[in-house]
Amino acid sequence: GTAQAHPLLNGLNEPQKQAVCLPAEHGLILAGAGSGKTRVLTTRIAWLMQTGQVSPQGILAVTFTNKAAREMLTRLSAMVPINVRSLWVGTFHGLCHRLLRTHWRAARLPETFQILDTGDQQAAIKRLIKAMGVDEERFPPRDMMHYINALKEQGIRSGQAEAHDAHTRRKVEIYAEYEAQCQREGAVDFAELLLRAYELLQQDEALRTHYQQRFRHILVDEFQDTNPLQYAWLQLLCGPQTVIFAVGDDDQSIYAFRGADVANMRAFERNYAKGNVIRLEQNYRSHGNILTAANALITNNADRLGKNLWTDAGEGELIRVFQGVSDLDEARYIVDEIRELTREGLPRHQMALLYRSNAQSRVLEHALFQAGIAYRVYGGLRFFERMEVKHALAYLRLIANQDDDTAFLRVVNFPTRGIGARSLEALQLEARQLNSSLYNAAASLTGKAGTAVGQFIRMIEGLRTETTGLSLPEVIDHLLDRSGLRQHYQAEKDGQDRLENLEELVNAAATFADDPEAAHNIDRDTGEATSLLADFLAHAALEAGEHQAGDQDEAVQLMTVHSAKGLEFSAVFIVGLEQGLFPHENAMMARDGLEEERRLMYVAITRARQRLYLCHAQTRMLHGQTRYCLPSSFLDELPEALLQRINTVPAWSAGSYSTGWSEAPAVDMTTRVSARAAGAAESAGGFHVGQNVVHTKFGAGVILAAEGRGEEARVQVRFGQAGTKWLALAYAKLEAV
Ligand code: ATP
Ligand code: MG
């Protein structure tokens, strides 16, 4: 039937309106990329509230990233005048964390429980394996971490894990010890957040009923990527009065490797949505050629739920396919095109560079940096994951929770306090025997080690009393001095960057403390409040990679295809389209691996609005080796008529790669090749940008920029350890590698 009229529905097409106004029954929106699923979901929340069908407290909405949650809250507050704080909108991890913070007691957690990020988790497992006297070679901590997380994601505790051989039995034992260690330390890893929240609802009937009655509408974006535990968690929250509204696209399911299961979508359709399935077929994001390419690619997958996308936006430009000689060549081409797009007036944040693996970003970053183009890497080394920041956070964590052994070990001897590995082993042994935290075991440690550790404990106690009543940024500022961290980096020759990051941490805390939406872990209904400190630490662990203030607007966006899900950009460069890289060689081993890679490619293509670049190179440096690459088989799956070939590979060389099309005449080859030649002449003293070098004192690095000639020649080098430096070639002991 025709949907209702309401100002919120203006501009939506008929099926979109129907979806927004679906009666209070379970429903599934099954639709392709860019068809307005997320827009429909957001509008539905606003519409439900504005038409008085639900209060903000009655909404639970799951988004794929924290960024998406923030965007949704921003859009909602523009559409309806509400206090967004009372809304439960977030990722599965964020929402589960909120639940556990609110009901820490019922979840059998200490009030100050801390979140372990992946790095912390691996360190904790490594420490445990050592304490158990287990052979690290046979049970690598990293593998153990994956093993444990995979079980948790299936809802399996160590007590339920199956083991039919000695090796697996040992793994289960390690899992059990790890559970005990986390419980003792009040530490919760990412997988545990979900499992704990699930068990909490499952075991506590009163609590479950409370939330079932509270949440009248559960809305889930990117439903195709839920894993079985997340789906089970949703089912627990769904009471007799609750309505679930799920939106998804089976063609964009890209997390099977992490246990996500498209079958959830079929199960949901069968058991909940029943007849209520709405398909959206008009794409509002991309120009015709881009959409046709995406459609053509994905038809190569079998077993799809089947959708067809169309647009009335017109064909638009051809898709540019660039073949370069090397990855450096590819990066230079991209820089040139970014400059051109900038001249045409496109803002930088509307340009995205998408790659299959994080390792690919390095070359691109160098090229952008050298060209003076602002860029922002999502999911690179996150601010909160930097060493000095983690050190400072460890002190903060110890103030909040002294039983946090991971934090304890990180800073007990940093800055150095003469506490050696021996003493720490003795302490760990003592703690195991007493079944207590390292902090509490310290008292029974004797001798010189006992004195040194005792001093550390007194310092933490001192910190705790001295900082009572201070604001969060003041606490951090104080601990930087009291712990000796600030002095340590002041004394260090190249500590300037790290000092700046520590000051930035104080700033981040100030921003966080001032943000009225920051304290979103305080549940005003139950009145249980957590401290700002705990909130800030959780923020550091959960939201680290996605948000950095300031540099958003004028920066080119760099990210993996996985993290681009749900986003859109005017111009998209997909880089490294080569066999083994994209599709990735690891995927070839997995069942349906190629199909998942193809869905990933589909996600990548459909991020583009107007202009799409598909780039690949003949040679690429990866993991320290030069690889010779063949073009991605996905390129062959795109209709040739949609493509414009751009080629900088000399004809004699292109001929040796008989891929059929690489000899195709280059559109603007001559100009490009001559531009390259000019670039080469700029190299200083035999060195060139992008080159790997070794310095006698600073070690290995890579040249970012070069200037001047002869005696005057200088190069800027980024060293692995020593940071970035300008060096005069006449004096510097620099060698090419
Ligand atoms: P994805 O599968 O990539 O997550 P999606 O289905 O969630 O995509 P949206 O991001 O909601 O799609 O919408 C894609 C773009 O189309 C957005 O810019 C959105 O504002 C726009 N859009 C959606 N519906 C309409 C409409 N009816 N009229 C105009 N623009 C629309
Ligand atoms: Mg979306």
Give an overview in words.
- Its EC number is 5.6.2.4.
- By secondary structure, the chain is of the alpha/beta class.
- The protein contains 28 helices and 21 strands.
- Strands 9, 10, 11, 12, 13, 14, 15 and 16 form an 8-stranded mixed sheet that branches. The protein has a 6-stranded parallel sheet with strand order 3-2-6-7-1-8, sandwiched between helices. Strands 20-19-18-17-21 form a 5-stranded antiparallel sheet, covered by helices on one side.
- Helix 1 (14-20) packs across helix 2, helix 2 (37-50) packs across helix 3 and helix 8 runs parallel beside helix 10.
- It starts with 13 loop residues before the first helix and ends with a strand.
- Mean pLDDT is 85; it is low at 519-529, 545-551 and 652-683.
- The site of adenosine-5'-triphosphate has 19 residues, from helix 2.
